[in-house]
Amino acid sequence: MENDTFTVSITPKDENGNEVTVTGTVTVKLPLPQNFPEKNLYVKHTKGNGDVFKYKATVDSGFITFTNPNGFSDFEIYVGSSSNGYVPQRTLTFDTNGGGKIDAVTANYGKTIVLADYTPKRSGYDFVGWYKDEKLTEKIEYAILDYDMTVYAKWTANGEPTEDADVETKIVLVINDKTAVVDGKAVSNDVAPLIVNSRTYTPARFVAESLGAKVVWNEPTRTVTITKGDTSIVLIVDTTTAYVNGEAVKMDASAFIADGRTFTPCRFVAEQLGANVEWDEATRSITIIQYAE
After folding, report:
1. Beta bridge partners of 286
2. What pLDDT is stored for residue 39 in this prediction?
3. Which neighbouring-strand residues pair with 214?
């Protein structure tokens, strides 16, 4: 053979001879061409976007065997050196939505990640599962790293309340309105809730104290400490890392100071204190409900 290279095109078929689409990781076994070298074999596939995949092949009993990471059907098989072997990497990021941090996973393109192996923890909440979208509508059990992706955690409060559960505290706030309603009574606030970068912020002290928590501001460290029962929340101004019962928790938004008042991410604080949070787009209102234990 003049060139130590040959190309292969594979058409996967089912047991009835019908063509099928193959995804995920599969093993390919091909007859070794006559007089083709048996050592230092590599497989190359080039995607339409220019990504080049190279990985090692082995020869056993006259057959070339290699792992096909994503059901590719066209290959170039060649003799090369180990330094040529390369498969692009993709990264899976975990957005725990208030839970403990889980480190991102970087692996070869096409690798299947079993999400059940990555379970975050969150005080006062039960983990429901991982979702493909921020709105938590599409639950997934596996992540196939065809691209860099993020999965999102969904939670329910421990002992998810029933419709007839007793309401201990109910707070209704409206964006840009200084008047809130707490347990049916209008309460005037000196600042109104805000939306910043698609996130809802409320005055730290007002919401926490309405839910029965204590709030302490530390000027030198620019921290807000919120405590209720066995729960302690520490937020640092302009920092997306909070500390819940001493454990670092990554938030998608940070506390900030405006008009002399500290604003904190509404949902994060309320849910950490065991309350449920509902957003009404039509009225631009936030309803926070604390159910009796």
Report:
1. 173, 279
2. 74
3. 227
Query: Would you state the structure tokens that stand for residue 82, as one six-digit string?
Result: 């180990």
Mean of pLDDT values over 131-151: 86
- Rounded-to-10 torsion of CA 270, 157, 99, 247: 70
Question: CA-CA distance, 114 to 251, in Å (whole number)?
Answer: 24
List of domains in the chain: 5-84 (no CATH), 89-157 (2.60.40.4270), 167-291 (3.30.457.10)
For 178-210, the pLDDT digits (tens) are 999 998 898 988 889 999 888 889 988 899 999
C-alpha neighbours within 13 Å on the C-beta side of residue 257:
10
Q: Could you tell me if 136 and 152 are in contact, meaning their C-beta atoms sit under 8 angstroms apart? A: yes
Q: What is the pTM of this model?
A: 0.47
Do the Cβ atoms of 270 and 211 come closer than 8 Å? yes
Q: What is the pLDDT of residue 239?
A: 92
Torsion angle in degrees (nearest 10) through CA of 163, 164, 166, 171: 40
